Amino acid sequence: MSRVGAPPRGDAVIWDYDGTLVDSSAKNFGVTRAIVERLTAKSADAYQALSSMAGYRTALARTQNWREFYARAFGLSEPDIDRAGRLWVEYQLADSTPTPLVAGIPAVLRSLRHLPHGIVSQNARAAIAAVLDGNGLTGRFQAVIGFEEVDLRRQKPAPEGLLRCVEILTELRPGYVFYVGDHETDAVCAARAQEVLTRREPGVEVVSIGARYGAESAAPWAVEPDHTVRRPEEIVGIVTHYTGPPPGPGA
Fold first, then answer.
1. Residue 107: CB partners within 8 Å, gap ≥ 6?
2. How far apart are CA 242 and CA 244, in angstroms?
């Protein structure tokens, strides 16, 4: 039971999107193929990273963010990478490939519904919103930070987007902020956000959770998260360990 008169805590759960909340690999693969063909005037099959889904996933796992991926896998210049970013929303919304929720995610969101939730992603806000709306989840997320809300050259693993989401959800009140992501980039982003918050708001603690339930989860990360889960349901136990059980009706 909460102490009468105590200020509210700043506990919150923030999610990466692709590979963490949803399985968007098939859709992102198709969208990337279309954008690369438009920018390079070459067949997507000419690039190893786009010749198969396995090649695509492997190439993504070797890079920190989408900008590095486009530079290394396709040799694009900085201006062309900027163009790719501007095309992403258009191509995402035009592509009808299904984007299913990861199995178990709805149950996790129900179990943790007493906490505010947000999303910090390198995908487009509009594309994320469309999937959330289609699954009846729009009201579960109080903040969605897409790639277009962060400077194109300050994407994850830079912490700007995560810090913005933390402030929206918690108003920087002391508490635990859990950042769940399926890529080493997310663990790095959480660590960098914690460095900033330690200097500015020492009462806010970022706890990183590696969502390693994907097909490419076996490879070690150079920067490990605070916790690792193999099934989404395990996230509930980690959050509860830090914050305690949900408040009862009389709390």
1. 232, 233
2. 6
Q: Residues 17-72: pLDDT tens digits?
A: 999 999 999 999 999 999 999 999 999 999 999 999 999 988 988 888 889 999 99
pTM (2 decimals)?
0.90
- Reading the block at residue 125, the tokens are 């806000």
Token output for 248 = 């009862």
- Output helix, strand, coil percentages for the chain, rounded to the nearest 5: 45, 15, 40
Q: 222-226: long-range contacts at Cβ-Cβ below 8 A with a sequence spacing of 24 or more? A: 222/184, 223/184, 223/187, 223/188, 223/191, 224/187, 225/181, 225/186, 225/187, 225/190, 226/190
Burial class (CB in 10 A: 0-12, 13-18, 19+), 136: exposed
Which backbone phi and psi does 38 adopt, to 5 degrees?
A: -65, -40
Report the pLDDT value the prediction gives residue 220, as an integer from 0 to 100.
Answer: 79
Using the 8-state DSSP alphabet, how is residue 147 labeled? G
User: Taken in order 179, 6, 111, 170, is the CA torsion positive or negative?
Assistant: negative
Starting at the edge strand that comes first in sequence, how are the strands of the sheet with 175-181 ordered? 143-145, 117-120, 12-15, 175-181, 204-211, 227-229
Q: Supply the pLDDT for residue 7.
A: 56
